[in-house]
Task: structure prediction
Amino acid sequence: MKYIPATGKVFDQKEVTNAIQAARDGWWTEGRFAKKFEKEFSSYIGIKYVSLVNSGSSANLLALSALTSAVFGKRALKPGDEVITAACAFPTTVNPIVQNQCIPVFIDVDILTKNSTVEMIQKAVSKRTKAIMLAHTLGNPLPLAGIMELVKKYDLWFIEDCCDALGSQYNGKPVSAFGSVATFSFYPAHQITMGEGGAVVTNNPLIHRSVRQFRDWGRDCWCDTGYDNTCGKRFDWQLGNLPKGFDHKYIYSQIGYNVKLTDFQAAIGVAQLEKLPKFIKKRKKNFQDFYIFFKEHEKYFILPGWEKEADPCWFGFMLVVKDDAPFTRLELVKYLEEHKIGSRNLFAGNLLKHPAYLKRKDYRVAGTLHNSDLIMNNGFWIGVYPGITPKHIVYMKKVFQKFIDMHAS
Result:
């Protein structure tokens, strides 16, 4: 048996052919494949505006940064505003809050779903709270009905990090359909890949325009790459203290970035998107096979749980070794590695334990982070991606069973 990684990409000649076509076009920045992907992805998720970027992390940065735009008036995020987020998270769900000089308010997660609960969010709300920024952990949808009630009650922005959750649904609607703005990642570990890549999606035209401004150097112009004078008045604007008629293509309304992707990446994404329904079905099947197996060993593990309204497209199969188990997480994952089975921690575990965050004072913790610590110490996940075959699953179950038998006797 070759090494079975926790994540991986699945592709065929179609992706290669598309990338070659993009190369032959000679238009190597964002181009026709990017437009095709944005249109098809918009149709798939039912969201009007899609902006492709170079990574899911950049997507998160743009999603929050866009909400700092002055066009939102009193609702615009400003330095010192609080944004509720989870301590048990991938860092780039949290970093944009810090990078925009807002205050992250860290809350815990539920030990079954690995998502923050409505009650945890409610207790974290203060007079300074302006937004919620949370991820659907491992593809498992957040308790969206309750979150949206809080969003409405307190007039909050909701940034929905769907980077692990493409294909997941809640109450029959795709994740990303609930937040003010949402993000996706197309890194090779995710449901579809462009190698690197991501997307910011929204139904709000003002957010969309702000996202594009921050994405494209901060410029005020909204022309697509390679196009000029879409507004029909390129040399008729007067903004800031610039002279009237200054080229709109080079007027900057935001302190922005350049985080666009290339058409090579988009070309690969177009081919991957065609395979997405098959990939979703395979991930769900692999997860179910593991769940049935580990249900027999529930005395040793805390198994995944999910909201009754949720239909997850799983990113991985999460296990938390119980404190009274006759083995530790570390012993088990080392054994798996020795037997060519890859595993991963749940990202940062408790983010506040990491060197980058230890000395920071610009955050608040609401409640305890008990479950985040438990997941950090005892949790790990294994892969369910479409490259894991029935043969792999049979082998993986045998390895787990042998390890359990060795320690249970």
Q: What stands out?
A: The chain has two domains: 13-266, 277-408.
